[in-house]
Amino acid sequence: MRQILLLPILAIFLLSGCGNSHSGKSKEIMVFHAGSLSVPFRQLKDEYERKNPGIKILLEPAGSLVCARKITELKKPCDIIASSDYFVINELLIPDYTSWSIRFATNEIVIAGQEKSKYSGELNSDNWMDILQREDVIYSRSDPDSDPCGYRTVFTFMLAEKYYNKPGLTEKMLSKNREYIRPKEVDLVALLESNAIDYMFQYKSVAIQHGLKYIELPKEINLSDPSKNDIYTSVSMDVAGSKPGTKMKVIADYINYSITVLDNAPQKEEAINFLEFMLSPEGMNIFKNNGQEPIIPFSTEQVDKLPAKLLKYLKDTKKN
Predict the structure, then answer these.
(1) N or C: which end of the chain has fewer CB within 10 A?
(2) Does this chain's domain 27-106+256-313 share its CATH topology with 109-240?
(3) pLDDT digits (tens, 9 = 90+) for 10-52
(4) Which 3 state secondary structure label does DSSP give 81?
């Protein structure tokens, strides 16, 4: 009788999984990433989870500087951080939180709008500053203290002032429509799609991913071309530093995204495996198809610090 009574209890116990040491719970990899990486990272996540059923990728987008401060100031647990500017990881996270970063993709600054944006038929790479200064035109940009796209937009203004020989252009561009500044570049898309603004300074990849109309700017000012770095590095600005109330100087550079696994990552080995997939030709095709050109072969300034699994993808140099 005692055995008969125990059988239903044992069955319930086994069905609930309490008696199984392999409960099947997925390992979770937390990724803090730049907002402009949202679309390719969602696609990477879906493909990686399909290939690795025991892994769950958790994505948390924000401006790259905000992502870094979640780690340095808020001490939020994280496995991977992917920044739209290698400077963020190198300046704010190395060496206290990680010892390396890999530059993996580039981009460019464009002016994005819609067919119904005011004067969209007139706007071009020669007259954009004049049209955007018209009183009935509203444009937006992201916050330089939160998002690299924000300070890169300011660099574009500074470089344009020199390129077009228009003294005072930077101040004019910075002083107009300040109420439309947002924390990260993808926040600007909602403003445009709701018709609150006519144009935004944006990454080309974001414009492509959202099917927006955009004009390309000369390479001398759009921060896309490594061969123009001597021109880009002629401008700089101060942004919010690693601690509240502090500032740090950012020197313009060609746009290059970087990524790392934190030293104290809760799922460090699995996070490195995810990066191995991301850096593979299959992973890089996802970025290329979303308007973000891979930097092939990838580069780093910390070759001797990199996980062995990732070395096969890199230049054998100390500096890009």
Answers:
(1) N
(2) yes
(3) 444 444 444 343 445 789 999 999 999 999 999 999 999 999 9
(4) strand
Contacts of 187 (CB under 8 A, 6+ apart): 35, 142
Q: Which amino acid is at 87?
A: F
Give the pTM. Answer: 0.86
Tens-place pLDDT, residues 187-225: 999 999 999 999 999 999 999 999 999 999 999 999 999
Write out the E strands in 14-165: 27-34, 55-62, 80-83, 102-105, 109-113, 139-140
Domain ranges of the chain: 27-106+256-313, 109-240
Integer Cα distance of 83 and 306 in angstroms? 17
Burial of 7 (0-12, 13-18, 19+ CB in 10 A): exposed
The 10s digit of each residue's pLDDT in 217-264 is 999 999 999 999 999 999 999 998 877 888 999 999 999 999 999 999
Q: What's the full length of the chain, in residues?
A: 320
- Encoded amino acid at 297, one letter: P
Q: How far is residue 64's CA from residue 199's CA, in Å, rounded to a whole number?
A: 22
Beta-strand pair 257-261/294-299: unpaired
How far, in Å, CA of 140 to CA of 193, rounded?
12
3-state helix, strand, coil split of the chain in percent (to 5) is: 40, 20, 40
CATH 3.40.50.720 at 109-240, yes or no:
no
CATH number of 27-106+256-313: 3.40.190.10
The DSSP call for residue 25 is: P
Backbone angles phi, psi at 57, to 5 degrees: -95, 120
In the three-class reduction of DSSP (H, G, I as helix; E, B as strand; rest coil), residue 277 is classed as helix
Rounded Cα gap, residues 295 and 54, in angstroms: 30
Backbone angles phi, psi at 139, to 5 degrees: -130, 160
